[in-house]
Design goal:
Structural class: alpha+beta
Keywords: Metal-binding, Zinc, Zinc-finger
Strand content: 5-15%
Radius of gyration: 15 Å
Pfam families: zf-BED (PF02892)
GO molecular function: DNA binding; zinc ion binding
Protein name: BED-type domain-containing protein
Number of strands: 3
Strand order of the largest sheet: 1-2-3
Distance between the termini: 41 Å
Helix content: 10-25%
Number of domains: 1
């Protein structure tokens, strides 16, 4: 989980997930752990990080373009409020209002 391609470029997900010590294909969100939430085990089998990226985007509002805003001076993730954004379209959200 240290690079997102063959060039060795560090993927932004590597800052926010820790690898399970007993199964290196499983990762846990450090933000969810620090916020005392029950972290879900995410698979990153074969180096695939798409589900890790989706978790950061959907639950924490973290994307590749803004991830540094969520790191402290030691490049460790800061605990951020879980996003309350809905994944529904604006039209569907209006139906519930």
């Amino acid at each position: 989980m240290t690079s997102d391609d063959d060039t060795g470029t560090i993927c932004h997900t590597s800052f926010f997930f820790r690898t399970d010590e007993s199964n290196f294909e499983i990762a846990y969100c450090k933000i969810c752990e620090r916020a005392n939430q029950n972290p879900y085990p995410y698979s990153h089998k074969g180096g695939n990080t798409s589900n890790l990226i989706a978790h950061l985007r959907d639950k924490h509002g973290i994307i590749k373009e803004n991830y540094t805003e969520y790191l402290d001076v030691n490049n460790e993730p800061q605990v951020v409020q879980t996003s309350t954004r809905s994944t529904c379209s604006p039209e569907r959200q209006e139906l519930f209002s």
